[in-house]
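Quick one: structure tokens for this chain, please?
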Amino acid sequence: MTLRSAQWTWFTLTLLAFGLSWLAPIWPFEQALHSSLTVVALGLMIWLIQTRQLSLRAFALFAVFIMVHCLASRWLYSNVPYDAWLMAVLNTNTAELFGWQRNHFDRLVHLLYGLCLTPGLVERARAYSVVKPSAPFWRAFALILMSSLAYEWLEWLVAVLLDPADAEAYNGQQGDWWDAHKDMALAGLGALLWWPWLRRGPGTPTTK
């Protein structure tokens, strides 16, 4: 299978996940707000395939992140019923295992943002001349943090324009005043987990 064929396969899976997330939507308005960025991401994926900007690994990780985001968008992040799923499969839940009272699926998505997007950002940074071998990684890390901050600002702006009930449903802070700070920290942590592997090496995509 060629690089482009494999990437089209990942795109198809992502598009399927997006479509399935819209079957009988529970909160259509709020889900549409979250899904607006998914539509942008799908367009970006098509462009990446056509221009062969990323390796298969980086593209697949990006696709995985978008698919998880589709799942989170359907349930507005803070309502993903993973405890019910755990109870049905393992007869336990996170409250019993870890003492959690908060739905932490949004934390997982922010962690995956840094974990899944960093390899692709490093690859693109390496396409330009740099002085130090580690510079592409730190550029990617900085971009993860800056884009996370921009997203939190966007969430704040949307919340300002909505009524309080809709704003809480969209933001999913669940009463945590430090929610934005923790989300950005987890995105940064996800990026830093790649440091031992991405600080050196070519990491450039191959074309077939």
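Residues 203-208 have pLDDT under 50 and may be disordered.
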